[in-house]
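Blackboard transcription, Thursday session:
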Amino acid sequence: MDISIVSLLATLIVAATPILLAATGELIVEKSGVLNLGVEGMMIIGAICGFIAAVNTDSPLIGFIVAALAGAALSLLFAVLTQYLLANQVASGLALTLFGLGLSALLGHRYSGIRPPSSPKMEWFGMAELPVVGPIFFNHDMMVYFSIFLVLMVWVFLKFTRGGLVLRAVGENHDAAHALGYKVIRIRILAIMFGGACAGMGGAYLSLVRVPQWTEGMTAGAGWIALAIVVFASWKPWRLILGAYLFGGVTILQLNLQANGFDMPVSYLSMAPYLVTIVVLVIMSSDRTRASLNAPASLGKIFHASS
Amino acid sequence: MIRLEPRTNPSQAMIILTPILAVLATMVVGGILFVTLGKNPFEAIRMIFWDPLLGEHAFYYRGQILVKAAPLIMIALGLSFGFRAGIWNIGAEGQFIMGAVIGGATGLALYPLNSFIVFPLMIVMGALGGFLWAMIPAFLKIRFNANEILVSLMLVYVAFNFLIGMVTGPLRNPDGFNFPESRSFQDFPAAHNPELWAGTGIHLGVLSTLGFVILAYIMITRHIFGFNVRLAGQAPRAAKFAGVSPNKMIAICLGLSGALAGMAGLFEVTGPAGKLTTTFPLGYGFTAIIVAFLGRLHPIGILLAGLLMAVTYVGGDIIQSQLSLPKASIQVFQGMLLFFLLAVDVLVNFRLRISKRNSK
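(Written on the board underneath:)
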């Protein structure tokens, strides 16, 4: 078998980035006490809207911006349903996913088979030429570094800023936060839209860099895996990177095994990322007390101010 | 300023009215969608809702409606119990696939045995396949506290890959041309699920679905199990004190929905689909979630919602061929329906109060 560790690690990072972006957004959403199961739908809408924008303007950057806006716009539907109309969050999230999958197929039916403009690599003063470290860390496009920067920003926001404290308060106990005068609904809507924007960018990374082209249903469960990675990370930002890269590693490893004619039908190898996700989920959830300590206490609960 | 005021009791009128409101809202917004696609909205809406039932070629479409409604209703019935109890099996698509593969494989293993026992055995194995597939998230939830939503959904992708592995491997038609598909069940009378009366679309699965609707109705309204399910959903603590074991509830609800989804898969693959192929799963497992909610998780409601959803499927085929619209437009339509339903649902438990801003 011919698998180079260096190229494996470099592609691993690319495979992990869409999920890392989506999971970072969902972390903020869940920290505010909202469970949005529509990540898959927002990702695929981001994938197609970003793709259309990038192809028509010939600019990947505009593609990512449009994808973020599209993801946020779709998440606003979820926000209105769950925050103003007090709909069940699980059902609304599922609706978002089903709707997003349909709408993306409708928007994208004339865009399959086109190649998007390629995203330029970041310039790190020639550090990409370094042996081993260069190709792994310094030979990627902008979004890879942006996704890590985003995790850093989210960590700083949650840990060191007043805004982060308020967000966490809303997620832990919305009644207490409301009594203190915080605008629970407004904060949650902002969090949901941030989550939508991140998921949209993650989707666009799939269609613009990772694959790169548009096919119907191309997210193939990536949004759901992002949800699982938030659980894996115990709602701690830095662990998202670990989770996403672990998942990226499994995906890349099975793809490499496929390409190298490993003696196992392709379809069974393709199960690997999903099976690993289940295993990881089981390990992280099995300690009930720890799991419930980490999860935001108001997660998934409906808030309706009595006055 | 519009304000929401909680009702003391859920409005019975609204429980029945809101699905109708949601359908009307979907027609209006869907019409706007068709305008943006450059089509005549009235024509499109007529093709989706009217032509399949009472149009010129309705005699053909009506059978199709039953064929598509049966699996949707059967799966949604199973899901409704879990949804009532707050147990979210959203992997019915995977259980549907596993039922079809396991049940289908049982039949194919017995080829060409022409015995009356083959088909009943396949039904049992199909239900068992779906049941066991659903027991994975149930077990992981009970034993390891793993979220059943995520696990059951991941298993959809695993099941789909398993299906591909089977039809390109052990279950590939040995007399075929190396296509990734199984032997056709039509050429194997003992394992075939034929149309019972030509042109009606009615096969054994359709009849069983009717039976299950009645059974589910009795379960939910007359049987202690139905009461416990409702109790566990509305007051989990009270249910615990009443001796309803949450773990048992998880196992029963997931197992029941899995078995029904698996059986639906078996009827589908041996009847309308005809053989196992990689394109055989059509997303019924996901659409059934919409059906369950649209039907208010009530057996009679699900029956009506399943028929309505089947009409939109058939109508979707009509607009696809006659207005050359992409297949996905009907998916958008169905997603929208669920959105509107969730949105107007607020009227069941709340009433709108219009008050002046300064009175606040």
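Lecturer's comment: Chain A touches chain B through 47 residues (CB under 8 Å).
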